[in-house]
Structure formats: structure tokens, C-alpha cells
């Protein structure tokens, strides 16, 4: 079972199950690796394999992460975040070094470095060139689906482009906003 980014399990087990084999993350969802982040069951931190899907702007973050240096990142807030009163400008924040201590937090991750891999730039380029219509940047969902097609004999996909433009973007998001497709 591959779960994407922040897809929660708790409270949705009847619909999404409770097993996680692989969880994909990006820089913006890397806080999921913290033990004090309740969005991911602690059991997932100990048993799942983690695939970081970095985009070009994430290279500096990744170098810092793997080198053990304090990590700084910029967060782009979407329209919903702005509507909730969050700042509209890009701002700097200190991010957790997931494999060591950090001044930003005392949370200790249970993720082992051996369970953490980075998506190959060649694979990213392959998906961009072969699977997108316009050669644009592929979404993490598309990257994960193509990864599953390469790893698994059978692939069933749930929750992608359900055909209802008024459905929530994510199953756990009650706000009505249009679904996207790739």
C-alpha cells in the first residue's frame, strides 16, 4: 500500500485500511517524519519505507538534511491558507533534521535512514517526459503511480480524478474545491 504525502489513516481505516508499505513525501510534508506529528501513525514511522520526491528547488534542503546541518525552507501558501489568515509572502522557517537532533524541536523520529530513499532524478525526468502531456512537472501522485507500475505486478488506484469537480481535493479535506488531474 502506497500512501501519498499527508494521507491520514486514523479515523479512515474502514475505507483506506491500516497498512502502509511505502509513504511518499516532499519537502512540504517532511514534518510527517516527526514522532509528534499525529497525521501518521507511529507504527508507520517504524515499518513503512519512505520515498522523498524532491523537485529542483528542494536540492538545497535535501543536502542539508542528509548532511545533518540545520535546514531552512520556504513555504508557499495557497489561497486556502491565505484565507485562514496565514501570511501571503514566502517566509523562512527552521525545519527538523529527521536523522538527528534539531534546535527546532525535541521530537525524535523513529524513521531509520535505511528506510528512507530519494526518488532518482532520472526517474523524475522519465515521468515528466513520457507521462505528462506538456512536459510539465509531474505531481507527486503521478510519480507515485508510475513508481507503483514499476514495482508491482498489479496496481489499483483509488482517489484520483473521481470525475466530480465539486468533490474535495483529498478524502480528508471537507472544503469543496475542484479535483485536479494530470
TrEMBL record:
Its EC number is 2.4.3.3. It is found in: Golgi apparatus membrane. Its main location: Golgi. Keywords: Disulfide bond, Glycoprotein, Glycosyltransferase, Golgi apparatus, Membrane, Signal-anchor, Transferase, Transmembrane, Transmembrane helix. GO terms for molecular function: alpha-N-acetylgalactosaminide alpha-2,6-sialyltransferase activity. It catalyses: a 3-O-[N-acetyl-alpha-neuraminyl-(2->3)-beta-D-galactosyl-(1->3)-N-acetyl-alpha-D-galactosaminyl]-L-threonyl-[protein] + CMP-N-acetyl-beta-neuraminate = a 3-O-{alpha-Neu5Ac-(2->3)-beta-D-Gal-(1->3)-[alpha-Neu5Ac-(2->6)]-alpha-D-GalNAc}-L-threonyl-[protein] + CMP + H(+); a beta-D-galactosyl-(1->3)-N-acetyl-alpha-D-galactosaminyl derivative + CMP-N-acetyl-beta-neuraminate = a beta-D-galactosyl-(1->3)-[N-acetyl-alpha-neuraminyl-(2->6)]-N-acetyl-alpha-D-galactosaminyl derivative + CMP + H(+); a 3-O-[N-acetyl-alpha-D-galactosaminyl]-L-threonyl-[protein] + CMP-N-acetyl-beta-neuraminate = a 3-O-[N-acetyl-alpha-neuraminosyl-(2->6)-N-acetyl-alpha-D-galactosaminyl]-L-threonyl-[protein] + CMP + H(+). It is a single-pass type II membrane protein. GO terms for cellular component: Golgi membrane. Pathway: Protein modification; protein glycosylation. Pfam families: Glyco_transf_29. InterPro entries: Glyco_trans_29 (IPR001675), GT29-like_sf (IPR038578). Belongs to the glycosyltransferase 29 family. This is alpha-N-acetylgalactosaminide alpha-2,6-sialyltransferase. It comes from Bicosoecida sp. CB-2014. The lineage of its organism: Eukaryota, Sar, Stramenopiles, Bigyra, Opalozoa.
Amino acid at each position: 500500500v502506497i500512501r501519498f504525502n499527508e494521507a491520514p489513516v486514523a479515523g479512515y481505516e474502514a475505507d483506506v485500511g491500516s497498512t502502509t508499505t511505502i509513504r511518499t513525501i516532499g519537502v512540504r510534508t517532511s514534518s510527517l517524519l516527526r514522532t509528534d506529528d499525529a497525521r501518521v501513525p507511529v507504527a508507520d514511522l517504524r515499518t513503512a519505507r519512505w520515498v522523498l520526491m524532491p523537485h529542483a528547488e528542494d536540492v538545497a534542503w535535501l543536502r542539508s538534511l542528509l548532511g545533518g546541518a540545520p535546514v531552512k525552507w520556504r513555504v508557499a501558501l495557497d489561497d486556502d491558507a491565505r484565507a485562514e489568515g496565514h501570511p501571503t509572502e514566502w517566509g523562512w522557517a527552521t525545519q527538523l533534521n529527521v536523522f538527528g537532533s534539531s534546535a527546532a524541536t525535541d521530537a525524535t523520529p523513529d524513521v531509520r535512514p535505511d528506510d528512507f530513499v530519494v526518488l532518482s532524478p532520472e526517474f523524475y525526468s522519465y515521468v515528466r517526459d513520457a507521462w505528462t502531456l506538456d512536459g510539465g512537472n509531474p505531481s507527486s501522485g503521478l510519480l507515485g503511480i508510475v513508481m507503483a507500475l514499476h514495482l508491482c505486478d498489479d496496481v489499483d488506484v483509488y482517489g484520483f480524478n473521481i470525475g466530480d469537480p465539486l468533490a474535495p481535493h483529498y478524502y480528508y479535506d471537507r472544503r469543496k474545491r475542484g479535483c485536479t488531474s494530470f
